[in-house]
């Protein structure tokens, strides 16, 4: 009973995964997705520059 191992045992390390192999359709889909994300990011940046739309601001209640 001279074992010093206590607590949870660490899991064994898994071998590193190799790079995935893509065919033409996968590459096309990845490129399309990347382009859509880029366009969405540009639209968000453009929208944040203009500020709030509507211009009404905070609505106040009629109570006093």
Model description:
The protein is mainly alpha-helical and 64 residues long. It is 42% helix and 0% strand. The chain has one helix and no strands. It has one helix spanning 24-50. The longest helix is centred in the middle third of the chain and has 27 residues, at 24-50. The termini are far apart. The mean pLDDT is 80. Residues 32-45 have a biased composition (Basic and acidic residues). This is Translation machinery associated TMA7. It comes from Zostera marina (Eelgrass). InterPro entries: TMA7. Residues 1-64 are annotated as: Disordered.
Shape field: flat
SS-based structural class? mainly alpha
Instruction: Determine Rg (CA atoms, Å).
Output: 28 Å
Strand content: under 5%
Instruction: Give the low-confidence spans.
Output: none
Largest sheet: none
Number of helices: 1
Indicate the percent of residues in helices. Answer: 40-55%
The total beta strand count reads: 0
Average predicted local confidence, pLDDT: 80
Distance between the termini: 79 Å
Which sequence of SSEs, written as H and E, runs from N to C?
H
